[in-house]
Design goal:
Blueprint (H helix, E strand, L loop, with lengths): L1 E3 L2 E3 L26 H15 L4 E8 L1 H6 L5 E8 L6 E8 L1 H8 L16 E11 L4 E9 L1 H22 L16 E6 L4 H12 L5 E6 L7 H15 L3 E6 L4 H4 L5 H9 L4 E5 L7 H5 L2 E3 L2 H98 L3 H13 L2 H44 L1 H6 L4 E4 L16 E5 L4 E11 L42 E5 L1
Helix pairs in contact: 5-10, 6-8
């Protein structure tokens, strides 16, 4: 650097600075001395040479919420990073001009529709490295933000947390707790006076149940979320409520990411009271939801589940009351019937007593009457005994001479000769019976043999062997009359060695016999009485020597 008429030339460091401020000639500056403005411009030019293109930077946003709260068009914040090597925290100022704010965050103030700018989020930003000479500020001018980086990092951390908690069994602890059938003491952790709080309370109130809600106000987003939520869980657990409800309305993925905090999840798992969650919209699921005893899609759904339990219990109680009333009615009816039965039993008992008394009197009368009759009978028996004894004595007094005469007559009878004559007569009678039986058997055998001969002559098989046939219709019935057969009908002809199925082509009536005897039929072709024999398919009825009027001759083809 050389001095030339109050100007400084930066030959080695970069382009030459023109128009440097002149100093009074009488106050000449010492050599190698430059002004602040010149140095600031030199720094600006040097940074432009060092960073000719925009740079992608990764850091954690800080003071971003304060910049939004000022509602200024431009957002001034800081990008912070802790160095892993020396442990120091490095920070650079950053600015997002109003046009870029509108382009990136839109009217809703949410990046890419999912990321809300909050302190503590880690972003990847495309920046211009800029130095503002008037203030000497080195700042990063943010031109673009990569939402995929922020979301991907959050998702990766969330997945790793879920895997670690699953291995430790933390997510299953609450599942083993049982909820009271009707939770009447309900603890609520949420932002008081929020939409989620109002929806929850209104749903409980509309159910018309005696449920008392104890509310602990907590931050549902931001750095205070973890501390206030854990404090609310501690407070409600000490109060001994039946169930704790942790609810929050919908929000961006970054807002709901606070409920992926490991500290909140472990506090839920350690809680001795069942915790129900309703965080975000229906499509959102936080790690806190996974650790809860039961997770519902929305805060209103949590309140609806509580109300439904109460209504179900009330329905069960009403049904129990109705059943008890029916039981009481049946019991009263049974008591009434039992009273009537007791009255009938009392009346029956009285009748039984009267009947027993009557039977006792009758028994006494029977006993007295029986004794009198027995005495009379005894006197009669004694008198009859004396009479019988006297008569037997008289009857047995037979003279001994009469008995001796009877014995002599018996000994004079020739017993053996009588027996011999009886035996001879019996033998003659037996021989006569045997001869008569043999003759009758012989005559019976002759009659059986004659009947067997006639049966063999009349056997249809014997007739068939003589050249005749049996004609049946399709139902197997024997056709005995030609008039019963129609032209075109199907018939079955049974021959000696089998059966033939045929169709009736025509029928011819049998001519009556001449007075002087039958004449041989004359065939149409002039054949005489001894013309050609009938065809094999022609049949004649057996025994039709005198064919009457209306008889037919069948020709079957």
């Amino acid at each position: 650097m050389t001095r030339a008429g109050g100007r400084f030339d930066f030959d080695a460091a970069g382009p030459r600075a023109r128009g440097a401020e002149e100093t009074p000639s009488d106050d000449a500056l010492p050599p190698d001395t430059v002004g602040v403005a010149a140095l600031a411009r030199r720094i600006q030019l040097a940074l432009k040479d060092a960073f000719p293109r925009r740079v992608w930077l990764v850091g954690e946003a800080s003071e971003l919420e304060r910049a939004r709260a000022r509602r200024s068009k431009h957002w001034f914040f800081r990008l912070v990073e802790e160095d892993a090597e020396d442990g120091r925290t490095y920070a650079l100022g950053a600015v997002l001009w109003a046009g870029d704010v509108r382009r990136l965050f839109g009217r809703g103030g949410v990046l890419d529709g999912v990321i809300e700018p909050k302190d503590g989020i880690r972003i990847r930003a495309l920046c211009d490295v800029d130095f503002y000479p008037p203030n000497g500020d080195l700042r990063l001018v943010v031109r673009d933000i990569d939402p995929a980086f922020t979301l991907g990092r959050l998702a990766l951390e969330r997945r790793r947390l879920i895997e670690r908690l699953t291995r430790e069994g933390v997510l299953e602890v609450q599942k083993r707790l049982e909820v009271a059938e009707v939770p009447l003491e309900v603890g609520l952790v949420t932002a008081e006076n929020s939409a989620a709080y109002r929806d929850f309370v209104e749903e409980i109130r509309s159910a018309g149940l005696a449920i008392r809600v104890r509310v602990v106000d907590a931050r549902m987003q931001g750095e205070e979320t973890v501390r206030t939520v854990c404090r609310g869980l501690d407070t409600l657990e000490r109060l001994g409520v039946d169930v704790i409800c942790l609810i929050r309305g919908g929000g961006s993925a970054v807002d709901l990411a606070w409920f992926d905090s490991e500290e909140i999840v472990r506090r839920i798992a350690a809680c001795k009271v069942p915790v129900w969650t309703g965080i975000g919209h229906e499509i959102d699921t936080s790690v806190a939801d996974l650790a809860a005893q039961t997770a519902y899609k929305t805060p209103t759904a949590v309140a609806a589940a509580l109300a439904e339990r109460g209504r179900a219990a009330r329905r069960g109680l009403d049904e129990a009351v109705r059943r008890l009333a029916r039981v009481l009615e049946r019991t009263a009816a049974e008591e009434e019937r039992l009273g009537r039965s007791v009255e009938r039993l009392v009346r029956s008992g009285r009748r039984v007593e009267d009947e027993l008394e009557r039977l006792a009197r009758a028994r006494d009368g029977v006993v007295r009457s029986g004794r009198a009759r027995i005495e009379v009978a005894a006197r009669d028996l004694r008198a009859d005994g004396r009479l019988l004894r006297s008569r037997l004595t008289h009857a047995l007094a037979v003279p001994e001479g009469a008995i001796a005469a009877l014995g002599g007559r018996l000994r004079a009878i020739p017993v053996r000769a009588v027996l011999r004559r009886e035996r001879e007569g019996t033998e003659r009678l037996l021989r006569g019976v045997r001869g008569a039986a043999a003759r009758r058997l012989e005559r019976a055998r002759e009659r059986v043999e004659a009947s067997d001969a006639r049966a063999r002559l009349l056997d249809p098989a014997h007739v068939l062997r003589r050249g005749f046939a049996v004609l049946r219709d399709v139902k197997g019935r024997v056709l005995k009359e030609a008039a019963a057969v129609e032209v075109g009908a199907r018939v079955e002809v049974e021959l000696r060695d089998g059966r033939v199925r045929a169709r009736v082509d025509r029928t011819e009536p049998r001519r009556p016999k001449e007075p002087n005897g039958p004449k041989e039929p004359v065939e149409p072709d002039g054949a005489g009485p001894k013309g050609p024999a009938p065809r094999a398919s022609e049949t004649r009825r057996d025994g039709d020597e005198e064919g009457g009027e209306g008889a037919r001759q069948l020709e079957i083809w």
